[in-house]
Design goal:
Chain lengths: 301, 237
């Protein structure tokens, strides 16, 4: 029983990271209908920035705040300089640009900071408390920080005029222009926010997976899966999907181990958890193509 | 006295093809002008060109200032509210959010609240549906929301593209009655594009008739209404 709770808890912790990546993907998707394949590598690069600032002697939170700020600026610049000229280009051209960005960030990180694996400090103290056998302090910290960030974002989009303008611009750019919203800047802001979310997610997960240029590649896959399961058009759904995929992959491994222990037959285990999680994702999408919370968009002709 | 809107030699393009061939018209302060014409005459194109939604050439003066080089959002900020064909409401946002986003360019909170009340005075049905998603409203209610949203900009000029399209006659009458009120009480000048010429000529003071991208006739609405050619082609009697 305790093992099951452990697995669920650590699933929630990694799910929190998937949820952030999923949300970053959805934010850009709803505004542009493009999936940013470079999202993971951008987050990895931001994490390196954070690490570098810590090496310079800054405290963890100061370093993270600056790294998130820098990432925001990088995100805005990418949209303004690289993607703006591509407005109206075919989806394939944009995909190629995303793949290019992915490669650029990947090799830049390798060139600047080398490919060797680095450890990344956790900002949360190693204390023991009731239930610390089930969930570690860093895992709790991860969940708390990401949920705080997601709530702040939700409040921003729901209650501020700027947030409303960003939603309006994503939903109907033509009408948004007609009420005086500068749609181009809203897009750039969305890119900046997505990049900043990635920075926080990267710094939270780096103490667990260690810092190296490949750190985000499987996380990006899980983030994709989470976004698709929840519904790529629904930010709330993407967050839920992220958590769900995190818990799911751990449960798969847990029940696999359990059957092996009980019956002595090996069916699935840790090695297959990604495959099984993705099979479940595909099943859900076959039954509900728009995702669990996505809306089927019908166009009136 | 200068006109509120003065247009000269306006050309508009969809890609390489020219859809308006240099039209000119003007709209007096506080007036209602209508542009009539058959399908494909360039009515919608004219409105789109005015607010810069498509590529255009020519001279457009709004209150004496040229706006032909400005972006759509900059023109909206000057007080030109365009209610586009198909209404252009934000279907995923609530009625309340649709109205609040329209006041995006303004920072005077108290006045925005007043305007919201004023708009609900014109359209009490929108107040009943304030938290409903705009996409779930009926066609008539969506048209009302589109006009209400335009009013939240505190416009000096409102461009209306086929407000009667797809609506029941009773609703259309109601909407036109309110447009007259908005024009007289609210001091909002109106440029109206309509297929329903009888309706439009009943509301407007001035009329222009477009045919394949050119103005073929213009004058006071009463005169245009009595023109035999117009009566036969557009009024059908």
């Amino acid at each position: 029983m305790e093992q099951l709770l452990q697995q669920i808890a650590s699933g929630l912790a990694s799910g929190a990271i998937y949820a952030c990546v999923a949300l970053a993907l959805v934010m850009i998707f709803t505004a542009t209908e493009h999936l940013n394949f470079a999202q993971g590598e951008m987050a990895m690069f931001s994490t390196y920035l954070c690490w570098q600032l810590i090496q310079f002697g800054l405290g963890f939170w100061t370093a993270l705040a600056i790294a998130a700020g820098l990432s925001f600026v990088i995100g805005v610049l990418i949209e303004r300089i690289i993607l703006r000229p591509l407005a109206g280009a075919s989806a394939l051209s944009v995909v190629v640009v995303f793949i290019g960005l992915l490669a650029i960030f990947h090799s830049m990180a390798g060139a600047i900071w080398s490919h060797t694996i680095k450890s990344f400090p956790s900002p949360f103290p190693e204390v023991s408390f009731a239930g610390s056998g089930i969930i570690g302090p860093h895992q709790i910290g991860m969940v708390v920080v990401t949920i705080a960030m997601l709530s702040a974002l939700f409040a921003f989009f729901r209650f501020t005029t700027l947030g409303l303008a960003m939603r309006a611009a994503a939903q109907n750019p033509t009408s948004a222009r007609l009420v005086g919203v500068n749609v181009d800047w809203m897009l750039a802001l969305g890119w900046g926010l997505a990049a900043a979310i990635g920075a926080v997610a990267g710094a939270m997960v780096a103490p667990v997976v260690y810092l190296e240029p490949n750190m985000m590649s499987s996380i990006l896959l899980y983030g994709f899966a989470g976004a698709l399961v929840g519904g790529i058009s629904s930010p709330g759904g993407a967050v839920f999907g992220g958590f769900m995929v995190g818990v799911l992959e751990n449960l798969v491994a847990y029940f696999g181990n359990l059957t092996e222990k009980t019956f002595g037959v090996y069916i699935i285990g840790n090695g297959e958890k990604l495959s099984v999680a993705l099979i479940i994702v595909i099943t859900i999408l076959t039954l509900k193509p728009a995702g669990l919370f996505g809306r089927v968009i019908t166009k009136r002709v | 006295m200068t006109a509120l809107l003065q247009v000269e030699g306006l050309k508009a393009f969809y890609g390489p093809s020219e859809a308006l061939h240099g039209i000119g018209f003007s709209l007096a302060h506080g007036g209602i002008t209508t542009i009539l014409g058959a399908n494909g005459a360039g009515k919608t194109t004219t409105l789109r060109a005015l607010v810069g939604m498509i590529r255009r050439e020519g001279k457009i003066l709004f209150d004496g200032k040229p706006i032909d080089k400005l972006s759509t959002e900059a023109i909206a900020r000057l007080g030109v509210a365009h209610v586009p064909e198909g209404r252009g409401t934000f279907t995923g946002l609530s009625v309340d959010e649709n109205l609040r986003i329209a006041a995006y360019t303004r920072s005077d909170r108290a006045a925005i609240k007043d305007d919201m009340e004023r708009v609900f005075g014109y359209f009490p049905r929108l107040k009943e549906r304030i938290n409903q998603q705009a996409g779930t409203l009926s066609g008539g209610e969506q048209q009302m929301l589109a006009i209400a949203r335009a009013l939240m900009l505190r416009p000096r000029l409102m461009l209306l593209d086929e407000p009667s399209f797809g609506l029941a006659p009773l609703i259309v009458q109601e909407i036109f009655r309110i447009m007259r009120l908005i024009n007289s009480e609210g001091k909002v000048s109106v440029l109206l594009v309509e297929q329903n010429a009888a309706l439009a000529l009943g509301l407007a003071t001035e009329a222009y008739v477009l045919e394949t991208g050119n103005v073929v006739m213009s004058g006071p609405a009463a005169e245009v209404k009595n023109d035999e050619g117009i009566r036969k082609s557009y009024l059908g009697y």
